[in-house]
Amino acid sequence: MSSTLLRHYIAGEFVSSERTFANVSPVDGRELGQVCEAGQAQVNAAVEAAKAAQSGPWGGFSAAQRADLLERIADGIERRFDDFVAAEVADTGRPVHQARSLDVARGVQNFRTFAGLVRQAGGEFFEMRTGDGSDVFSYTVRKPHGVVAIISPWNLPLLLLTWKVAPALACGNSVVVKPSEDTPSSATLLAEVMHEAGVPAGAFNLVHGFGPDSAGEFLTRNADVDAITFTGESRTGSSIMRAAAEGVRDVSFELGGKNAAVVFADCDFDAAVAGVLRSSFTNSGQVCLCSERVYVERPIFERFVAALKAGAEALKIGYPDEDGVNMGSLISHKHRDKVLGYFELAHQEGATVVTGGGVPRFGDERDNGAYVQPTIWTGLSDDARCMREEVFGPVCHVAPFDSDDEVVRRVNDSAYGLATALWTRNLGRAHRISRQFRVGMVWVNTWFLRDLRTPFGGARLSGLGREGGRHSLDFYSEITTVCVNP
Ligand SMILES: NC(=O)C1=CN([C@@H]2O[C@H](COP(=O)(O)OP(=O)(O)OC[C@H]3O[C@@H](n4cnc5c(N)ncnc54)[C@H](O)[C@@H]3O)[C@@H](O)[C@H]2O)C=CC1
Ligand SMILES: O=C(O)/C=C/C=C(\O)C(=O)O
């Protein structure tokens, strides 16, 4: 990073504020730098700039020009790939190889994908014969909403931010982005790339700060914001929805999950063990798609738990740039306290701790970091709080099951409904039961394999609406129908 003071980006300029807060490394607890905190006036200025951009040069861009701009932004991220990796790793403590292969690579891909999609996006066309014999035709045109507020979380900072910024700009909106207070760095770099790529002033704005009574709430309550897209905790989604109700603004929410993995006795055993290790422990369990409930068909239950335990104990926890490291820290000490609270609760609720359950000791500065051990529980009842609430850490509970109907019922017995992963060689069964899960996404013999054109989102507490492919174009557009009676 070029500076240790991270600033806002408003109306095409980097600006600071008097109030700042510390950006703290979750690897060793040291301060990485200071971040400006936007007050009400600065958030209002960002929204005003975004609104003004709609009637300036940005408002005149054609879809093809916007697509070209998105390609230039993707080129800009690629040119500064190593800076983005360093920013993401410093803020999150994740392994460097993950930031390279997932976070930053996907940031680039989001811009290229939505550039391609908006170039192809057509409207709809219908013909209808009326009672008097005339042929009426109707067609649709896509227009931007205007100003879109983007509130993003800390778990996959650049990936989730670009997943929203790219289609919002592709559709011609102006955006005001509020990244998580825990991960301000890659968003600031993205503002630098926007500046270098020649994004017209006001089309992309960035404000730093917190949620309640800070930049997040100021932004979502601003009446000139036309639509809000948010990824984060379900409770925060409810607060934002209350703010959006004023003025009946459009919302798109990707919220939490208490996802299940279902392992049938006929699965490819080694692939299923490797898959569940990934789905439970990737990014230290801090992906909304992670599996915290694992159901294993009884004939292979004991063998599966033993193999999963061996796999979890073989995961290497350490510095982000260490060779062979699989797991980094959690995002923050605050989040570690939350995860450790669930470790304690599991103990009180009668769990058997198969492995983990504590904090690794390194004997160096990482003991000031926010690490926890990968943890596996068995023996909890389906109504235990640890089975119903999202922990968002490297932990799963493994339970046996005996029939398809039973496992579908238990998987669906959740307030959440984001994703399920199935492991079986019987594709007939996979097709049959996939549709029975009350979730937005089902993976069969894989996990977190994403075609960016497919709908992404969840049911019930897991979200509202779908993004991805044309679903993103629909959310980020206002569609007008024109009916012509020739
Ligand atoms: N994708 C997911 O499912 C995620 C789930 N979480 C869960 O949420 C818990 C809390 O983590 P947080 O970072 O505090 O998540 P959060 O949902 O509170 O924060 C996400 C974003 O929303 C903003 N925000 C918070 N309250 C707001 C409000 N009232 N109005 C507008 N913006 C607001 C935050 O500043 C941040 O940018 C975690 O322990 C984890 O369990 C966190 C991040 C992502
Ligand atoms: O878009 C993806 O591929 C990943 C999405 C993950 C989340 O939404 C999350 O962890 O919050």
UniProtKB/TrEMBL annotation:
<dbReference type="InterPro" id="IPR017628">
    <property type="entry name" value="OHmuconic_semiald_DH"/>
</dbReference>
<dbReference type="InterPro" id="IPR016163">
    <property type="entry name" value="Ald_DH_C"/>
</dbReference>
<dbReference type="InterPro" id="IPR016161">
    <property type="entry name" value="Ald_DH/histidinol_DH"/>
</dbReference>
<dbReference type="InterPro" id="IPR015590">
    <property type="entry name" value="Aldehyde_DH_dom"/>
</dbReference>
<feature type="domain" description="Aldehyde dehydrogenase">
    <location>
        <begin position="16"/>
        <end position="482"/>
    </location>
</feature>
<keyword id="KW-0560">Oxidoreductase</keyword>
<dbReference type="Pfam" id="PF00171">
    <property type="entry name" value="Aldedh"/>
</dbReference>
<protein>
    <submittedName>
        <fullName>2-aminomuconic 6-semialdehyde dehydrogenase</fullName>
        <ecNumber>1.2.1.32</ecNumber>
    </submittedName>
</protein>
<keyword id="KW-0520">NAD</keyword>
<dbReference type="GO" id="GO:0047102">
    <property type="term" value="F:aminomuconate-semialdehyde dehydrogenase activity"/>
</dbReference>
<comment type="similarity">
    <text>Belongs to the aldehyde dehydrogenase family.</text>
</comment>
<feature type="active site">
    <location>
        <position position="254"/>
    </location>
</feature>
<dbReference type="InterPro" id="IPR029510">
    <property type="entry name" value="Ald_DH_CS_GLU"/>
</dbReference>
<dbReference type="InterPro" id="IPR016160">
    <property type="entry name" value="Ald_DH_CS_CYS"/>
</dbReference>
<dbReference type="InterPro" id="IPR016162">
    <property type="entry name" value="Ald_DH_N"/>
</dbReference>
